Every structure is written in structure tokens, then in C-alpha cells.
Amino acid sequence: MYMTKNGSITSRRDLLTAIAIAPVGIASPWDAAIAALPHHDEPVVLRRTRAGRDESRFRYHNAESFFLGLEKGIVRDQRDRLYQTGIVLQLGLSSHLFDVGFTDQWCARHVGLNVARSLAYANASGFGFESAEFDLLVAILSPYAKWRSPQSREHAEHPPFTPEHIRMLTRVLLDHVHHVTGHPRPRGWNARCA
Q1: I need a surface site. Which of 68, 91, 118, 127 has the fewest CB within 10 A?
Q2: Using CA atoms, how far apart are residues 58 and 99, in angstroms rounded to an integer?
Q3: Residue 180 dihedral angles phi and psi, to the nearest 5°
Q4: DSSP for 27-90?
Q5: What is the separation, in whole angstroms, between the first and last Cα of the chain?
Q6: Which carries the bigger pLDDT value, residue 29 or residue 46?
Q7: Is the pTM of this model over 0.85?
Q8: What is the rounded distance in angstroms from the CA atom of residue 28 to the CA atom of residue 26?
């Protein structure tokens, strides 16, 4: 729920509907929060589209798919686990970003592989996922490509989170993406969780 300027409360879905039907050029309710981000350097016009919604669902389902190896404990190497966790989190967060109207091209230029930046844009646009532990995790992971480098070995040996804790935080984020976007779980999701 969000408080409007006149003091009334509105839902996220009502805000997104208003963005989807508003003529181009009308400000989104999140413009000020997005503009206040320290790394924000180019305006973004949020416009919800069917294609963006489809890409959002595709990203969420891919996040769940990539998470399966982590969830089952198949990924054993710490650096690979951190790298794959970064991919999962970035896919989940971009699902929200595409849902509210960010484009793939804009995200590629301004977010890249930086999960912390993705989380900041998501929260500035109504995602509502506040957690000090999660903030620390995404700061460690960002940009997640660094975990593919041989130099990352010494940093990966003493992470502040256990693999189980990382899995738990990742599951909480993916459940939040599912809830906020309203996307259905991927086919077979119930069977794999049983």
C-alpha cells in the first residue's frame, strides 16, 4: 500500500494500472524516489506494456529455474554458488523492473550485473523489499561477474553467510517477486518443492 499526496492509500496494482493507461509523459509515482538514487544519471520513463509483462514473467521463471541447482545443493564450489546466486537475484529483481516499465536496454546500460543497483531501482519503484541481511548479500555479490574471476577465490573462502542462509535469503526474494508481480509459479514448481 502507498500513501498518495492527498493522504489516501492506494495499492501497488492500482498504481501500475494507472501507469499502464496514462498517456506518455505523465510522471510515475516513483519518479522522485528513482531520481534520488545516488547512481541515477539518466531519466527513465516507466511505461507498462504487454511485452514488458511477458519479459517479466520469463525472467521470474528463469530465476526459479536457475535457483533449482542452488536449492538442491548441487552447486558445491563457493565461487560458482555466489555467481549463480547473483544470476538468480538479478533475474528476480529484473522481473519486477520489467513489470513496472523499465526496459531491457535501459537496465543493460544503467544496472548491468550490479545486483545492489537492481535492488535499489526495484525498491524505488515499489518493490518494497527491505532487509539489512539482503542488502549485505547483494553488496557482496555486486557485480556478480566478479565471482568468475580467479582473483575472487580468497574472498569466497570466508563469506559472512552459510550456503543455507544464502539459499534462504534467495528463496525469500523469489517468493516476494512472485507475490509482488502476481506471476504464476513455473510448471512443476509444486512437485519440486515436495
Answers
A1: 68
A2: 11
A3: -70, -45
A4: PPTTHHHHHTSTT--S-------HHHHHHHHHHHHHHHHHHHHHHTT---SHHHHHHHHHHHHH
A5: 33
A6: 46
A7: no
A8: 7
Kindly state the cell numbers that stand for 18.
Answer: 494507472
Q: Coil, strand, or helix at residue 10?
A: strand
Cell of 35: 531520481
CA dihedral 135, 140, 142, 148 (to 10 degrees): -150
Return mean pLDDT, the chain: 80
DSSP 183: P
Contacts of 125 (CB under 8 A, 6+ apart): 28, 30, 33, 34, 46, 96, 97, 100, 102
pLDDT digits (tens, 9 = 90+) for 138-156: 998 888 888 887 666 555 5
The single-letter code of the amino acid at 112 is: G
Q: Which of 5, 176, 1 lies closest to 99 in space, CA to CA?
A: 176
37-58 average pLDDT score: 82
Helix (H) or strand (E) holding 3: strand 2-3
Report CA-CA distances (Å) from 9 to 4, 14, 110, 122: 6, 10, 31, 20
Q: Which grid cell is 68?
A: 533449482
3-state secondary structure (DSSP) of residue 9: strand
Amino acid of residue 128:
G
**How far is residue 119's CA from residue 141's CA, in Å, rounded to a whole number?**
12
111: which 3 cell numbers? 544496472
Domain residue spans in the chain? Answer: 48-193
